[in-house]
């Protein structure tokens, strides 16, 4: 694709004809329009498949089409009629393929046969499944210490595949199960576990219909959760306040046209989404929320409002740590709050007033909150805000983290974590009669470091594009190349497959849209959405190739070849996935009646004790936190640097899903023809001496002496706080140092990268 970037202010609403046109283009580029539409109509339907994209929940009663722009593009990409066969790899060496763009790599089409890398010829060659399983099994058996093996998982994997994958790994003897969660939302789970004893959302979809205020922190639904937009718009329409806290005023939260609303589409109409916008500096959300609570407590103490606005009964009966928190508030001066948040006291008090005027507020947040050094503390502060008015465990109110992938929660619940609970491991031990490793394994960042140190020798990936989603791209690629063996289970070619170990295999799998036929017949799999609802998913299209296998079948084949059938009869489990779900039910009691419940149209909710205000913390209470504000955020530090320095955040365009790029356009931000852009405040542009359209190189202010640079990025003036700049993920992952991670979460601080700019030597 060309890289001729055009930037102009977008005035069209999110969704609408732009989304329809974009989806139509995606379908036409990959398959016939008839076939594409037929498949799209089966997306997120009771008799269809769950879209392999975003995690937003399906409504109780689905319409004939559950429209999601990203979902359609994901389906179109999977349905592509383009195929990669062995002849493709005869034409290109791996070194030549490394010069392809990420888009061009995935645009080559579906993988159709198992492949083995030949280091001598620098090419992948076709092999049989029997050869692949036999060779990989022999290699894994030859590893003396199973702890040298990493089982990485992308959040798209089904519950059944994830459960088998971790079972295989734990019987093999490792506890190294990093996942995509480690790179984005780990802080959410940790903070919620500390606060309420449950790391998940406390609300269901029906609560959004009851809420009279929805606060959206550090999240751009237009790009990451398009199906959330009509929910927010409907809330605004019935008079609820939708309040955005984000450094960028995103188009998706300004206006939305619902493609399912025929009258609106005919009239080219649209409606507003958010009612209020607050634009804190990067990393300033914790200070902003603390200021809101400080204002509310002051009003309550001074009886400024006519009624009590603190729910002291709730606090007394349900909470611990309130007195310590009050002291922390007293010790936090308004000047510190304003300096750190980048908002004025008036703005913060306005937000606080919106909050106390709501009887049923919901607070959601995205990676704009969870990818900072102090993310856990920030999310605890959000929970403090909810606690002071008793807004957890009541209808229409609560907390809602927004993970990206469709089954991020599900794979964690299935045991994809390097530090599972003892309860889970003991249940696994009882169900399968083996002794799993009880010590914690490595997360994603630790895996990168240990591979570079030569302490990990095998990297196996169930889906995903690890080297592009991980931080410090160059260093991560070096780490993978140092491995003895790399194995990628995937539907399409991506850059991670080109970072080969001494031995490398690509094992092609069925897509979510395709039939999965096993010995007992067609199978269904299950996924869990972001609000803890379990859905079944059944493919509706023939496989792209007769040589494809399902992810569960591939895992079973690898396990059988490596550890045999002594502990688990893998063949028996794979013949009918109901048998896998029976084992899941045996290990996880909340899945009682799994096989019957999952066949209920629309799926079923897993019980959430928080709904009944049963707190699973050690104290048995909801816990306030008394974290101090950071001494200085990255934005504050860069503002005082002797050399002109900025704080960079990475973000998605509306035409991508995680590392998968559908086009070089970002319709909502007015960008077309390329992605190497950096969004800057015009005042910062003058300070840096750069002009619109000029190209700059971005360099990390590194603490370890490593040179991290992203070259030739076009400057785009944008409404973003001074000192803060933004560019696209994953292109600027090369700038995210692997050592810079969140406290407790170890998640890369992708929203707070200190960088400098210099004019590019290549003038654009």
From TrEMBL:
Keyword match Metal-binding: yes
Please report the stretch or stretches of sequence annotated as the Molybdopterin oxidoreductase domain. 110-491
Q: Which InterPro entries match?
A: Asp_de-COase-like_dom_sf, MopB_CT_YdeP, MoPterin_dinucl-bd_dom, Mopterin_OxRdtase, Mopterin_OxRdtse_a_bac, Prok_molybdopt-oxidoreductase, YdeP_MopB
Per the record, the domain of life is: Bacteria
**Is Transmembrane helix found in the keyword set?**
no
**Biased amino acid composition, Polar residues:** 741-750
- The record's region (Disordered) falls at 740-764
Domain Molybdopterin dinucleotide-binding: start-end pairs: 646-753
What keywords appear on the UniProt entry?
4Fe-4S, Iron, Iron-sulfur, Metal-binding, Molybdenum, Oxidoreductase
* Cofactor(s) needed for function: [4Fe-4S] cluster; Mo-bis(molybdopterin guanine dinucleotide)
Q: Which family does it belong to?
A: Belongs to the prokaryotic molybdopterin-containing oxidoreductase family.
Instruction: Write the protein's name.
Output: FdhF/YdeP family oxidoreductase
What organism is this sequence from?
Pseudovibrio brasiliensis
């Amino acid at each position: 694709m060309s890289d001729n970037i055009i930037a102009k202010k977008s005035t069209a609403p999110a969704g609408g004809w732009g989304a329809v046109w974009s989806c139509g283009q995606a379908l036409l580029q990959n398959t016939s329009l008839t076939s594409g539409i037929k498949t799209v109509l089966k997306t997120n339907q009771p008799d269809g498949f769950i879209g392999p994209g975003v995690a937003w929940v399906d409504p109780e009663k689905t319409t004939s089409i559950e429209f999601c722009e990203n979902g359609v593009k994901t389906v179109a990409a999977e349905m592509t009629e383009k195929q990669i066969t062995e002849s493709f790899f005869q034409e290109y060496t791996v070194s030549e393929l490394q010069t392809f763009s990420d888009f061009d790599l995935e645009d080559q089409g579906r993988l159709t046969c198992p492949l083995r890398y030949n280091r001598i010829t620098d090419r992948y060659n076709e092999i049989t499944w029997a050869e692949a399983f036999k060779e990989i099994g022999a290699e894994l058996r030859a590893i003396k210490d199973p702890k040298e093996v990493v089982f990485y998982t992308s959040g798209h994997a089904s519950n059944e595949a994830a459960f088998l994958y971790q079972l295989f790994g734990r019987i093999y003897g490792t506890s190294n199960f990093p996942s995509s969660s480690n790179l984005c939302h780990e802080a959410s789970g940790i903070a919620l576990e500390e606060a309420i004893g449950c790391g998940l959302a406390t609300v269901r979809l029906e609560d959004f219909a009851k809420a009279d205020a929805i606060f959206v922190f550090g999240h751009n639904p237009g790009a990451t959760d398009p199906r959330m937009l009509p929910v927010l718009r409907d809330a605004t329409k019935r008079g609820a306040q939708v309040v955005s806290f984000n450094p960028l005023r995103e188009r998706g939260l300004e206006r939305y046209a619902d493609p399912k609303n025929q009258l609106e589409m005919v009239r080219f109409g649209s409606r507003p989404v958010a009612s209020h916008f607050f634009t804190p500096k990067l990393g300033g959300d914790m200070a902003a929320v603390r200021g809101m609570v400080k204002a509310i407590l002051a009003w309550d103490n001074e009886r400024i409002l006519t009624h009590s606005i603190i729910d002291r009964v709730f606090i007394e009966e349900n909470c611990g740590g309130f007195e310590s928190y009050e002291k922390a508030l007293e010790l936090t001066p308004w000047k510190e709050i304003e300096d750190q948040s980048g908002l004025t006291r008036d703005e913060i008090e306005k937000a606080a007033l919106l909050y106390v005027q709501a009887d049923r507020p919901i607070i959601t947040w995205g990676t704009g909150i969870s990818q900072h050094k102090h993310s856990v503390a920030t999310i605890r502060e959000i929970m403090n805000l909810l606690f002071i008015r008793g807004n957890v465990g009541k209808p229409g109110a609560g907390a809602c983290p927004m993970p990206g992938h469709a089954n991020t929660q599900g794979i964690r619940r299935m045991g994809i974590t390097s530090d599972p609970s003892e309860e889970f491991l003991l249940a696994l031990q009882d169900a399968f009669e083996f002794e799993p490793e009880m010590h914690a394994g490595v997360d994603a960042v630790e895996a990168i470091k240990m591979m570079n140190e030569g302490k990990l020798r095998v990297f196996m990936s169930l889906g995903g594009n690890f080297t592009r989603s991980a931080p410090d791209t160059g260093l991560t690629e070096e780490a993978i190349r140092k491995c003895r063996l790399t194995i990628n289970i995937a539907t399409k070619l991506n850059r991670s497959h080109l970072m080969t170990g001494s031995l490398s295999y690509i094992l092609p799998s069925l897509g979510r849209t395709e039939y999965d036929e096993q010995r007992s017949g067609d199978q269904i799999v299950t996924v869990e959405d972001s609000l803890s609802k379990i859905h079944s998913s059944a493919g509706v299209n023939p496989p792209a190739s007769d040589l494809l296998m399902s992810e569960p079948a591939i895992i079973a084949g690898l396990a059988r070849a490596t550890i045999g059938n002594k502990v688990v009869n893998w063949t028996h489990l794979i013949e009918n996935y109901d048998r896998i779900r029976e084992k899941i039910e045996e290990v996880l009691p909340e899945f009682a009646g799994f096989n019957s419940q999952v066949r209920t149209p629309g799926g079923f909710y897993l019980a959430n004790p928080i709904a009944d205000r049963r707190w699973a913390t050690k104290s048995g209470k909801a816990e306030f936190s008394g974290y101090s504000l950071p001494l200085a955020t990255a934005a504050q530090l860069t503002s005082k640097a002797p050399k002109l320095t900025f704080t960079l955040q990475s973000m998605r365009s509306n035409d991508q899903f995680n590392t998968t790029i559908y086009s070089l356009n970002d319709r909502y931000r007015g960008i077309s023809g390329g992605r190497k852009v950096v969004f800057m405040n015009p005042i910062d542009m003058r300070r840096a001496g750069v002009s619109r359209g000029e190209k700059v190189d971005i360099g990390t202010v590194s603490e370890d002496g490593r040179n991290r640079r992203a070259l030739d990025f076009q400057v785009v003036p944008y409404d973003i706080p001074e000192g803060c700049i933004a560019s696209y993920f994953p292109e600027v992952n090369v700038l995210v140092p692997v050592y810079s991670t969140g406290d407790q979460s170890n998640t890369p601080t992708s929203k707070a990268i200190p960088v400098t700019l210099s004019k590019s030597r290549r003038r654009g």
